[in-house]
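ok posting inputs for the iron/sulfur cluster job
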Amino acid sequence: MFIAGLQKLTAKDFPGTIACLVFTQGCNFRCPYCQNYELVSTDYKACDALIDEHEILEFLEQRKKVLDGVVISGGEPTIQQGLKEFILKIKNLGYKVKLDTNRY
Ligand code: SF4
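and the output
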């Protein structure tokens, strides 16, 4: 998983759920209107602010009583290796997961 950002709280991105937002790095599209253009690059070596997956899981462990869900966004999360396993780890902590993707 290449994770580029964590927004610790959102009340609007997961309807009916107090959540945090995890932003993955890299996208398979290059939309000219992209509002997260800094997350599009798949040149992971050039990204110096990547966050270790364990940091995210540790944060979630500590916020169990505050948050109900996790939004995984990007970039495009489904290009990430290990996404399924990451989601299972989050669900095993008791969170609901919402996946924002460009795939239908
Ligand atoms: S993150 Fe979304 S809007 Fe941005 S390039 Fe990828 S698909 Fe397009």
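notes: Residues 3-99 form one domain. DSSP finds two helices and four strands in the chain.
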